Amino acid sequence: MRAGTGVARRVRVRVVERVPAVPGRRPPAPRPEPHRPSPEPAAGPCAARPAGIRQEPTMTAFLADSAETRYVDGPEGERFAYRRFGRAGTRPLVMHMRLRGTIDHWDPALLDLLAAEREVIVFDNRGINFSTGNPPAVMEDMVEGSLAFVRALGLTDIDVLGWSMGGIVAQGAALAAPQLVHRLVVAGSSPGGVPDLPAPPERTRRTVGKPVNGDEDFLYLFFPETEKARAAGLASLRRLDRRLKESHAVVGPEAVRGQLTAISGFQGFWHRRRELALPVLVANGAHDVMIHAYATYAMSQVLPDAKVVLYSDAGHGFLFQHPEDFAHEVNRFLG
Q: For the region Disordered, what residue ranges are annotated (predicted)?
């Protein structure tokens, strides 16, 4: 017990130096639901479809790519778009997306590996992409939108995962509704307000500020500039193509402005860090140029019950560079 805190702190740290791919490895998948297509992605790697050319559906081996897009009405007259798949009867894992990301920007390889052992729910928050309503411009409203969606589904016991900006929203949900959230996974993120956190490089700011990002932008932002990391990054981007070529999912300009305003005005949850008494898995790549990996280390020093995983050969997109290993960590942590 740390002197003066009154809080026992249990922290386990794992540094992953090299995570070899396992050829042919794929989780057992239940029979996929029939896919029903949903209505220039600034947040996605796919180019717009040429006018007059009909896009034929592509075949996919991923359960996540075949999951039906559903809708549920929220408390303010909005409609939340979501997908729910995996092992029924387990505690659902509700996943929160990054800045400028949508329901179609989750790597299906990671989703399938998680869904092999639990029910997975991905969604567009209020005013984002397929969901209606007013796009939030403060972080607290993003948290409230997340909780409104969960309650609209009638869920009372969930696990929560958030990547990047979604990691902040996920922490906010756990703080606002501790009776609802059983375990928390924070990936490539920060609580905000971390003392002495190194700022992102100027190139990162310029790249994030572009109206449209292409493959090279995403490779720089999410993966280290090594041959293996770039190859893994391109493979992940191509796995996104099946959904994005059909949906052209995008976060609109108003919503992007709201997200950027929310991030810039956010004071952080650092001062509330000891309130996160639930078990927390915190993970990142050591070479993250979006949110410095020091934020992950700093969380390990103050959270009462945390496990930390750092990938020495990865960056912000470590969860897509090493989907097998990260999914294993998440599934083991959630139990």
A: 18-50
155 is a domain residue: yes
Is there a contact between 64 and 112 (Cβ–Cβ < 8 Å)?
yes
pLDDT at 15: 59
The Cα 200–Cα 263 span in angstroms is: 14
Q: Report residue 274 as tokens.
A: 């000891």
Return d(Cα 266, Cα 57) in angstroms, integer.
41
Residue 14: what pLDDT? 62
Do 126 and 155 form a contact (C-beta atoms < 8 A)? Answer: no
Degrees, nearest 5: CA angle 90-107-80: 65
Query: Mean per-residue pLDDT for 203-227?
Result: 96
Helix axes 323-334, 108-115, angle to 10 degrees: 30
The band of 35, judged by pLDDT with boundaries at 50, 70 and 90, is: very low
The parent domain of residue 287 ranges over 10-19+32-43+58-334
Do the beta carbons of residue 146 and residue 169 sit within 8 Å?
Answer: yes
181-186 mean pLDDT: 98
Report strand pairing: 70-73 vs 79-86. Answer: antiparallel
Task: Say if 49 falls within a structural domain.
Answer: no
143: CATH: 3.40.50.1820
Length of the chain in terms of residues written: 335
Q: Which spans in the chain are helix H?
A: 63-66, 108-115, 139-152, 165-176, 202-208, 215-222, 227-247, 253-265, 294-302, 318-321, 323-334
Rg (CA), the chain: 19
Overall number of domains in the chain: 1
**Spatial distance between the Cα atoms of 55 and 7, rounded to a whole number of angstroms:** 57
pTM for the predicted model, two decimal places: 0.84
**Residues ≥6 apart with Cβ < 8 Å to 138:** 261, 262, 265, 266
Residues 6+ apart with CB under 8 A from 24: none
